[in-house]
Amino acid sequence: MAKWTPKHEAPEPLEGPVVATVTGGTIVWFVLFLVQLPFYGWFHDHGHTWWLWTCLAGGGLGLIGVWYVRRRDAALKRAAAAEAATREQQEKREQREQQPQQEQGPQRP
């Protein structure tokens, strides 16, 4: 079998409200668990208790996801702020280097 190679480059990942999306999904899983909880007896009698535990597991994993994406979002913001500060310092340094040259003017032979 031949090795598969892509015909074009993959597009850039979309950045959106990741924290809100994961939080919303986590809330949905917990709500589904709570809605099904009063019917535990019926689920147990019909062998469908895994539905409840699936919702609870989804909510628990969602909490881990919320923790992860909040940390990721904070790290991205810190990196952007550090990059902006570095860029600003570089611009100031370049301005200071150009300023003495402008004050002296052109030198005559």
Main sheet characteristics:
none
Integer tally of domains: 1
Total beta strands = 0
Tally the helices.
Answer: 3
Shape, per Cα inertia axes:
elongated
Overall mean pLDDT: 89
Derived structural class: mainly alpha
Strand content: under 5%
Radius of gyration: 28 Å
Q: Helicity range of the residues?
A: over 70%
Low-pLDDT regions: none
Cα-to-Cα separation, first versus last residue:
74 Å
Element-by-element helix/strand order: HHH
Region (Disordered): 79-109
InterPro entries: DUF2530
Biased composition (Basic and acidic residues): 85-97
Organism: Streptomyces echinoruber
Features:
single chain; mainly alpha; 3 helices; elongated; transmembrane helix; DUF2530 domain-containing protein
Mind explaining what this structure looks like?
It holds the Pfam family DUF2530. It is a single chain. The chain is mostly helical. The termini are far apart. The chain is elongated. Helix content is 74%, strand content 0%. The chain has one domain. The relative contact order is 0.09.
Strand and helix layout:
Blueprint: H1 18-36, H2 40-45, H3 49-104
Overview in brief:
This protein has one domain (18-97). It has 3 helices and no strands. It has helices at residues 18-36, 40-45, 49-104.
